[in-house]
Design a protein that fits this description.
By secondary structure, the chain is an alpha/beta fold. It is 27% helix and 29% strand. It is built from ten helices and 16 strands. β9, α4 and β10 form a beta-alpha-beta unit.
Length: 307
């Protein structure tokens, strides 16, 4: 890498895995309120392949992929006072993190958990923030409540189990039988194998459902709720009108990065209350293989990318 360019995984058009290529791009310059991060790690989320296929609308090309970022501050733009050169940080970028450098808004960054390897820490931001906001900002989970968390061995679900237990909730978690041991380790009180049981017949009268599975299961998730309960959906239409007719609340949301919550998560990780579940961390040149694994949907926890 020269002083002015960086390697990055990019796409020049929407499509399948064949559209990926490694490009040499100019190192970006941080603007006002922004930070240039020397990237040490990133990670893969389902949203990444959906962006590549064009599900989220038009984009400017070449497009650098991945949202999670972990690294050290290389430089800061005007008005940034909370971070300085050399600081270990993690967070969320919307300009792509599958590169040697990434520009990140300062209020989308937090101090990185120092007990974690930088590449391992990159699996945290998107999934953990999504779980945190679903449970507490939208689900309003409090101690003593019953919570149903779908896909408990996935990226969001594995964080959600731990956060719900930290909050004092009773946790039902769905997942295949092979992952029940892991989900119990994370804190699930009762695990439900969706291959052999109807979750809505096991988890009854729950206060909150974190729905991260298919559209065809939303109605069943609503059935699991008690009157006045809240369904929070991160990957499906929450069927708000159907919920309202049942005296329940259904919400769809997208995660919004926030420094304050990244700091909270950093503290929970440093205090060993929450830990990421990492399937594997791959080198830069295995980017496409890892993305394919995530799209197939059988990973346990998260796949990280070392840069």
């Amino acid at each position: 890498m020269s002083n002015e360019t960086m390697k990055a995984w990019v796409i020049d058009k929407f499509g399948g895995p064949e559209v990926y290529r490694v490009a040499e791009l100019p190192i970006p310059t941080p603007g006002e309120g922004e930070v240039l991060v020397k990237v040490q790690g990133s990670s893969f989320n389902p949203a990444d392949w959906k962006v590549r296929e064009g599900h989220f609308g038009s984009r400017e090309f070449p497009l650098v992929q991945l949202f999670d970022v972990s690294g050290v501050v290389a430089s800061t733009g005007a008005g940034v006072t909370e971070f300085g050169e050399g600081d270990a940080v993690y967070g969320v970028t919307y300009t792509g993190a599958a590169a040697e450098y990434a520009v990140v808004k300062a209020d989308h960054l937090g101090p990185r958990p120092t007990l974690m390897d930088p590449a391992d820490a990159a699996v945290v931001p998107v999934a953990a923030l999504t779980a945190y906001q679903a449970l507490f900002d939208h689900g309003q989970v409090t101690s003593g409540q019953k919570v149903l968390i779908h896909a408990g061995a996935g990226g969001v679900g594995s964080f959600a189990i731990q956060l719900a237990k930290w909050a004092g909730a009773f946790v039902y978690a769905t997942g295949s039988a092979r992952n029940h041991h892991l989900m119990r380790e994370l804190g699930a009180d009762e695990c439900i194998d969706y291959h052999s049981a109807k979750f809505e017949e096991v988890a009854k009268d729950v206060d909150m459902v974190l729905h991260s599975i298919g559209q065809d299961q939303v109605s069943a998730s609503l059935q699991a709720l008690k009157p006045g309960g809240r369904l929070v959906a991160i990957s499906a239409d929450p069927l708000a009108s159907e919920a309202e007719a049942q005296g329940k609340v259904a919400i769809g949301f997208s995660m919004v990065p926030a420094t304050e919550q990244l700091r909270k998560l950093e503290g929970l990780i440093q205090d060993l209350i929450v830990r990421p579940v990492i399937d594997t961390v791959v080198p830069f040149d295995r980017f496409v293989d890892a993305m394919n694994e995530v799209q197939q949907g059988h990973t346990v926890g998260k796949i990280g990318l070392r840069i």
